[in-house]
Amino acid sequence: MMMTEEMGDGVLRGARARGGVVRLPIGIEDRGVFERAFSSASERISDMSFAICLGWGEALELTYAVIEGHMCLFSNVDGDLSMMLPPMVVDEGAEDRLGRCIERCFALMDEENGTSTERRSRIEYVSDEMLDRIRSSDAMVLSASAMPGDYVYKRSAMVELAGGDLKGKRKLRSKFLRENPEWTAAPISKDDLDECNALLSLWRNAADKRHEGEANERLIGTDVLRERDERFTRCLLEYLDELGLVSLAIRINGRLAGFTIGERLVGRDGSVQAVIYVEKTDPEIAGMPQFVFSYFCERCFGDVEEINVGDDWGIESLRYTKTSYRPSRMMSKSMLMREPVGVGSVVDPGIVRRLEAHPMTVAVLKSAGQVHGEDIVVGIRRARAEDAVGIAVVEALVFGEDDRFTLRQIKRLIANPRAVVQVAIKNDRVVGWVVSLIRTHRRWKSGRIYGVAVDPSMMGRGIGRSLLEAALGELGEFGIRRVYLEVRVDNAVAIGLYESLGFTKLANLADYYGEGVAGVRMRRVVDNASGG
Asked: How far apart are CA 290 and CA 281, in angstroms?
């Protein structure tokens, strides 16, 4: 059923009304209005799909409305009302009302979000084409910030996995074929659904254990994201036939070992992309992901030239995996707001209150050790905006250009209410810094030591330890009992320091710092901390 602006409050079950606009949850019967909206795009990003909108509907608390002749998609999942796509025209002749539509959408979001700093009205997943349309309309002035974009690959490259860059993928695929000669493949049927859902639960539990403590760029735990992804996948499985999706189930000796789901997206100019939405495999079967991906591209999408696998959700490990397949291009996405937004803008109000209440100027003097009989006294305190340049100098002294934080990133971290940035000061000069992040998981919050650096001229005097102790102490004030970090496997000095502070090795991370450069994830658990 298509919803119009004229429908009254409470007319339809599940409807939400605000500002004179009724928003409805998405149902399979709404496919027509979404497809009309998406048909106006010359090239569609992966989010411009009815399957995506229906699948994520429950997990992201999606609702939609038709406003000024445009389909408008909203989400209420992270404690604020935002738009998950820009308004897209569905009524003939409504193109010139885009600016008025955007103004009404922001008024609607503002009415629900209020004026608090942690609840932001915004439009996400804006393609370059839609960004140009908005900028050329009479819409209100908005700033654009980059979001993770779609990874697009040449189909032929994914089928062949040829070349030195994909040698590792090719070896893993060969390993799967060598060790599992009895594999079979067929489209997913209704009879497969119970096994698919069971494998989905197995995948999620294994990934939660393997990636414990991880979070995306917004500091939302990957366990939260996987829970949402599981609900999305179950929805696609339920509506597989109704949506006309392309699917494949891989069995080994009759047992389900993996499945994948996708479809073809056609743009207004007739361009066709295959988009892969789901790929779930038994985590115990080596080479299974590489085989499933390659074979799905070969068997089911022989008529297309490009494969779109969506974005990386702002997750470092997923970004590395998708980049390792060497995309041929990226499809950009932006977020629109009234002002630029930094990482982690959607935050827990409790954290904001605690950070604002914490003294920002109190210096805690610590002895940083004794060198050549000279006492070195360093102050450890919360970083201020004016410390950013000093921190950048330390970063430049310690790290290469590709590894260090930029001045802009440092400023954003200092301003981020979910980043705890502390500096070591000697004679009014920054000689070291540490940044820790507060992450939200399903049942608890965790901390992550995101970066630590000490001026090389001041090393060996205990400043790094003092900074880490200060960071752990402040995280403890928030009741955080689990703190994570990653370190190069060959950095024995740093690993020894972390172990002396109570960290233990949790997982080995192959190629974490680049091909052939492994990392170690470490965890510190404090049993007597409150909360968490």
From this structure: 10
